[in-house]
Amino acid sequence: MGAKILVSACLMGHAVRYDGQAKPLVHPALDRWRAEGRLVTICPEMSAGMPVPRLPAEIQPGKSADEVLASDARVLESNGGDVTAEFRQGAENALALAIEAGCAYALLIDGSPSCGSSFVYDGRFSGDRQPGEGVTAALLRKNGIKVFSDRDIDALVEAITRSD
């Protein structure tokens, strides 16, 4: 069996997003990897004890996930509440699980302040996107795990096919 893949729980149909919804991703490769026992599922926010539903949260305007990890930026809820500690803990939990399970790859929901891998929201709760990554995606990448967004599953399939 090949490398394992850490997957955002919402992509696997779990209703764990801030709004109490799932964002199930349907793809034949997911079915195959599930049957092969390669998928390791986590919701970083829930692993850090955050409730469902919960207030929307975004990384401070003009700041990055790397700055959150370095304690130079915060993750804030739409009402101004500081959830930086929870997002950092969720990232640490995801990394620990990925290492323990032998995950070489991660398939994460884009846009999330945890799991975003190509874009996040601008921190103003305006709905505007900007290039960037979430706290969990950044920590996984820093530790050598190859991160793919839900929109890039075909690139993940290709990477895994080459490595198996």
SSE map:
Blueprint (H helix, E strand, L loop, with lengths): L3 E5 L19 H8 L3 E4 L1 H4 L9 E3 L5 H5 L5 E3 L6 H18 L1 E6 L10 E3 L7 E3 L3 H8 L3 E4 L3 H11 L1
Parallel strand pairs: 1-2, 1-5, 5-8
Antiparallel strand pairs: 3-4, 6-7
Helix pairs in contact: 4-5
Q: In words, what does this structure look like?
A:
It contains 6 helices and 8 strands. α4 crosses α5. The strands form 3 sheets. The protein has a 4-stranded parallel beta sheet with strand order 2-1-5-8, sandwiched between helices. A two-stranded antiparallel ribbon has the order 3-4. A two-stranded antiparallel ribbon has the order 6-7. β1, α1 and β2 form a beta-alpha-beta unit. The protein is an alpha/beta fold and 164 residues long. 33% of the residues lie in helices and 19% in strands.
Structure keywords:
about 160 residues, alpha/beta, 4-stranded parallel sheet, two-stranded antiparallel sheet, 6 helices, about 20% strand, globular
In short:
The chain is 33% helix and 19% strand. The chain is α/β, with parallel strands linked by helices. Strand 6 (119-121) and strand 7 form a beta hairpin.
Instruction: Give the end-to-end Cα distance, rounded to a whole number of Å.
Output: 8 Å
**Gyration radius from CA atoms, angstroms:** 15 Å
What fraction of residues sit in β-strands? Answer: 15-25%
The counted number of beta strands is 8
The average pLDDT is: 97
